[in-house]
């Protein structure tokens, strides 16, 4: 008989496969894993990358403000300009069949990458504003 398992954690998958092989010996054959991402996981990745891009933009704007003796205020506009996602290694060969790939190559092929470009407009506060608030 054949049994299929779906794991969301690679470490747990390895532990279970090792346990089955150890306990059942030669009577069990563990096939090569098939990796995929659910639409929810890819969507969560997109959101995470966008939030990180906004955080990076804010930190850069704070550094620029410090350079000019200003302070960064609240965001006035944040716009997601572009989101890209791609998978697998950049040097993958179309002739590679899944049977001939190592486990590491399978993981690399199944890995999803994402990038996000954002633009943001922030309020800039002068040093006078801080002094006035203290008075």
Walkthrough of the structure:
With 135 residues, the chain is of the alpha+beta class. It has 2 domains: 1-31; 36-90 and 99-125, no CATH class. The protein is 44% helix and 23% strand. The chain is built from 4 helices and 2 strands. It has a two-stranded antiparallel ribbon with strand order 1-2. The longest helix has 29 residues, at 39-67. It is elongated, with a radius of gyration of 24 Å. The termini are far apart.
Fold blueprint:
Blueprint: H1 10-24, H2 39-67, E1 71-87, H3 103-110, E2 112-125, H4 127-134
Antiparallel strand pairs: 1-2
Keywords: Cytoplasm, Nucleus
Subcellular location: Cytoplasm; Nucleus
Protein name: IKBP1 protein
Give average pLDDT, whole number.
Answer: 85
Question: How many domains is the backbone divided into?
Answer: 2
Low-confidence stretches: none
User: Biggest sheet, in brief?
Assistant: 2 strands, antiparallel
Shape: elongated
Main location: cytoplasm
Family: Belongs to the IRAK1BP1 family.
Pfam family, one: SIMPL
Protein name: IKBP1 protein
Summarize the structure.
This protein is 44% helix and 23% strand. It is an alpha+beta fold.
List key phrases describing it.
single chain; 135 residues; 2 domains; SIMPL/DUF541
């Amino acid at each position: 008989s054949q049994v299929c398992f779906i794991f969301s954690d690679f470490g747990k998958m390895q532990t279970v496969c090792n346990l089955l092989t150890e306990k059942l010996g030669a009577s069990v054959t563990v096939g090569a894993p098939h990796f995929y991402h659910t639409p929810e996981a890819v969507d969560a990745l997109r959101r995470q990358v966008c939030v990180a891009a906004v955080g990076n933009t804010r930190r850069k704007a704070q550094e620029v403000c410090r350079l000019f003796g200003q302070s960064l205020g609240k965001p006035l506009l944040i716009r997601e300009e572009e989101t890209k996602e791609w998978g697998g290694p950049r040097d993958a060969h179309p002739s590679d069949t899944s049977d001939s790939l190592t486990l590491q190559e399978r993981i690399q092929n199944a890995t999803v990458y994402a990038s996000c470009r954002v633009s943001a407009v922030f309020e800039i506060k002068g040093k006078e504003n801080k002094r006035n608030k203290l008075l």
